[in-house]
Specification:
Number of helices: 4
Radius of gyration: 17 Å
Domain DUF5753: 4-100
Pfam family, one: DUF5753
Number of strands: 3
Strand content: 5-15%
Shape: globular
Structural class: alpha+beta
Distance between the termini: 12 Å
Protein name: DUF5753 domain-containing protein
Largest sheet: 3 strands, antiparallel
């Protein structure tokens, strides 16, 4: 089952609008360990280029969801995202790693 899920990740990573990057264990204590999973939501601009809504951080919490839209909060999560991005393999290396792990599951 997991080999199918990993193979599916490799397939969808080839789509133009999908980017999958794996943070290796060797990266150590990167920002994502502290933040946990999160998304930075950006909304469509108006016709004159102004934001319809402020960018918002969405995070799943243990006791509920968080929606953070204060500039300082957004800045901290954007900094964390850049740190995670820098710690991650590039897209091609990530795809190779996922395919390699999928192959190990198929053999084992």
């Amino acid at each position: 089952m997991i080999e199918y899920q990993l193979a599916r990740l490799v397939n969808v990573a080839e789509l133009a609008n999908i980017s999958i990057r794996v943070v290796p264990l060797a990266a150590g204590a990167h920002a994502g360990i502290v933040t946990g999973p999160f998304s930075i939501l950006r909304f469509p601009l108006t016709g004159d280029g102004k934001e319809t809504e402020p960018p918002t951080v969405y995070a799943d919490g243990y006791t509920g969801n968080l929606y953070l839209d204060k500039p300082k909060e957004l800045e901290r999560y954007e900094t964390a995202f850049r740190g995670i991005w820098q710690a991650a393999h590039d897209e091609q290396a990530s795809q190779r790693l996922i395919a390699e792990v999928a192959g190990e599951y198929e053999q084992g």
